[in-house]
Amino acid sequence: MLVMLGGFLAGICTFFLASRLGDYLIETRYMSEEALHQRNMAAVENLQAFIKDNNLSSRDTDQLAIWSIEQKDIYILFYKNRHLAMEAGWWGVDNEFSLGGSELNEQVSLQLYPVSFRDGVFQAVVYDFSESKLYDAVQVIGIALGCALFALIMLWYNSRITGSIIAVSREIQEIGRGNLRVEMETGGNDEMGRLTRNVDVMRRSLIRKTLEEQNALEKNSELITAMSHDIRNPLTALLGYLDLAKNGQYRSQEELQQYLDASYSKAEQLKTLTDELFRYSLVFGGRELKLDLQEYDGIILTEQLLGEPVILLQQHGFTVQAARSEKPCRVRLDVQYFKRVLDNLFDNVCKYADPAFPVTVKVAEEAGWLRIRIGNVCKKELGAVESNHIGLKTCERIMSQMGGSFCKYEQDPEFSVELTLPLLPEAEK
Q1: In sequence order, which ranges of 328-401 are alpha helices (DSSP H)?
Q2: Mean of the pLDDT values across residues 282-287?
């Protein structure tokens, strides 16, 4: 629409410029005194030749009418002794029209040309009206130029749009074939420019997602390889101990008990590794969790679920500082998955927190959310920490699919996490 309006305005401007230029040339060139004089002389000479060839007198008006009909843009007044004798021109002879009356006004400056008839010499005043046709021609040319410019602008725009459509179509085809490295032409602020930029954003997004998937596959492969190696080692040792016990290859009951203790230790290690593999599958498996969402009082339920983990912390020498809101609030969640999140968090506290510092647990209703914040101080020297943080990612995914959030905050040596769940509206309570 803007291009069409611009083309229309350009056409109008071209029309006015062409008209003004044409008018200027007519007035300065065609209508100059010298040019008028030359045309008047030519008309008089032509008339004089016609009179001479036909031996005409001033009374031969029929013959003069023949000549006047052919002179479409000439009008001549004939004066005798400064009195109007007759007139001839593009509307005929013997017309009553005369400028300034029947007598030639001496105060009017007119160019007089002598014309000889058989019966005497007359003074002729020549009027040239041919410029009217030129003015009309200028108008027509101005309109033609304006229309031509408008048509050229529209043709240019249409060709540009067509070219852009062909280019975008070709680029989209390349993207469809899997070539995400194709360069997109993103110039212009019109509809095609915006479309091209949107396609380019989609292309870049596909590249980013493809790279992320490739990186994830590589990490998956590395992790599976590492876990396979980690599982194989304790499994081999476990089978070795059990084989010794089965075949009676021990010297005393104490040695047998050592084999059994070692087997139990390796079995626990295998359980830890399989739990880790389960959490990994939960995070990166790509499947939606099958949640059994039910409505509960968030404060009361959280206090009940925290009871066992808090006791375990106290048994491991931790001091727990708990605070909770007394205001009831309703939330919707899956109890089993929510318990898994809390168990996972408190298991990490047992592994990595320093018992010399208290573990803080705060449960409160704030601004339409149930917020559970667990904080601790990390040990100065930690052993092997899960480098991929699969446990925390598991918590994050579970909370997300229940409509909540999971955030962690690290400021060495302090570490805390915050769980949030949306409160149900009053109408649903």
Answers
A1: 335-352, 390-401
A2: 57
Residues belonging to the chain: 429
Judge whether 76 lies within some domain. yes
Euclidean distance between CA atoms 309 and 342, whole angstroms: 8
**Same domain for 410 and 308:** yes
Confirm if 369 and 421 have CB atoms less than 8 A apart: yes
Confidence of residue 143 (pLDDT cuts 50, 70, 90): very high
CATH number at residue 276: 1.10.287.130
Q: What is the DSSP letter of 353?
A: B
Cis amide leading into 413 (omega within 30): yes
Q: Are 76 and 61 in contact (CB under 8 A)?
A: no
Which residue from 326, 322, 310 is spatially nearest to 360, judged by alpha carbons? 322
pLDDT of amino acid 207 = 76
- The count of structural domains within the chain is 3
Q: Do 125 and 218 belong to one domain? A: no
Domain residues for the domain of 46 are 32-129
Could you give the CA distance from residue 196 to residue 190 in angstroms, rounded to a whole number?
Answer: 10
Nearest to 60 by CA among 94, 104, 101: 94
Q: Are residues 309 and 363 in the same domain?
A: yes
Q: Which two tokens stand for residue 205?
A: 């997004």
